[in-house]
From TrEMBL:
Keyword Repeat on entry: no
Keyword line: S-adenosyl-L-methionine, Transferase, tRNA processing
Signal peptide residues on this chain, from the entry's feature table: none
Gene Ontology biological process terms in this record: tRNA processing
InterPro entries on file: DTW, DTWD2/TAPT
Pfam families registered for this protein in UniProt: DTW
Key word Protein biosynthesis present: no
PANTHER family in the cross-refs: TRNA-URIDINE AMINOCARBOXYPROPYLTRANSFERASE, TRNA-URIDINE AMINOCARBOXYPROPYLTRANSFERASE 2
GO molecular function: tRNA-uridine aminocarboxypropyltransferase activity
Protein name as it appears in the record: tRNA-uridine aminocarboxypropyltransferase
EC number(s) stated in the UniProt entry for this protein: 2.5.1.25
Top-level taxon in the UniProt lineage: Bacteria
């Protein structure tokens, strides 16, 4: 089953067309699938879920993040049909991003910890009765980079801040983190989707994230692909073409 490239994939292609070279991550010499970024032997493409969402997502990424094979913003864009991605710049404002933020069909929410923002801007809920669809603005970067993006982007100043109250620790194991309570971008997006009532998409993204982590780490550790895991079983109901999986 073929899928159209998501916004992050298109952004990567654009950067490459501009002559910007991808980072050389550990294991870069191994051939990776162009579509899912996982080493070919552990390709994830057959496990990409198909699910409807009312919500949209907009990923604001650093120039490096779009090339990282461990990036989880890519997974969000795979799951949420209305997905957008932009490279952040302190000095240049993307007019398409401004147009998206001003589009009357959307109610944008900038997802960021509430303790860093004046209380009047902060909400812990997503409004579902104003006729607009939720658009979650996610700063897809390291925590240090995300704080810089937040401080130096004046076009975010008018947006409500969605501050999440997660009751679980991060399951992200693909990069080192000193804080287990810091969720990765895909985990954050799943919480947002749940708040917006897109429960099927939240479940699909959670399972897709776990399956991606297993495939990615399995390839890194040179382990055989194991499809008989609880995460694969949870993701299976969201797969549109199970024949491809059975054939694999």
């Amino acid at each position: 089953m073929s899928h159209a490239p998501n916004a992050v994939a298109r952004l990567r292609d654009q950067r490459e067309d501009e002559g910007i070279k991808p980072i050389q991550a550990r294991g870069f010499r191994s051939e990776r699938c162009r579509d899912c970024r996982v080493i070919i032997s552990h390709c994830l493409c057959a496990w990409r879920p198909t699910v409807e969402t009312r919500s949209g997502v907009c990923l604001i990424m650093t120039g490096k993040e779009v090339f990282k094979p461990s990036n989880t913003g890519w997974l969000i864009a795979d799951v949420v049909r209305d997905n957008h991605a932009f490279i952040w710049s302190r000095t240049e404002i993307d007019e398409q991003l401004l147009a998206l933020l001003n589009d009357p069909q959307w109610q944008p929410y900038l997802v960021f910890p509430g303790e860093y923002v004046e209380p009047s801007r902060v909400t812990n809920t997503v409004g579902l009765d104003n006729g607009k669809r939720p658009l979650f603005i996610l700063l897809d970067a390291t925590w240090t980079e995300a704080r810089k993006m937040f401080r130096k982007s004046p076009y975010f100043d008018r947006l409500p801040i969605l501050s999440l109250l997660p009751d679980r620790l991060s399951r992200y194991r693909l990069r080192r983190s000193t804080r287990s309570e810091h969720l990765c971008t895909a985990e954050v997006a799943a919480l947002c989707l749940e708040l917006a009532g897109d429960n099927a998409a939240a479940s699909a993204l959670d399972a897709y994230f776990d399956v991606f982590s297993q495939h990615y780490l399995g390839a890194k550790q040179q382990l055989d692909v194991n499809l008989a895991t609880p995460a694969h079983a949870e993701l299976l109901p969201f797969i549109g073409n199970t024949q491809a999986i059975q054939a694999g």
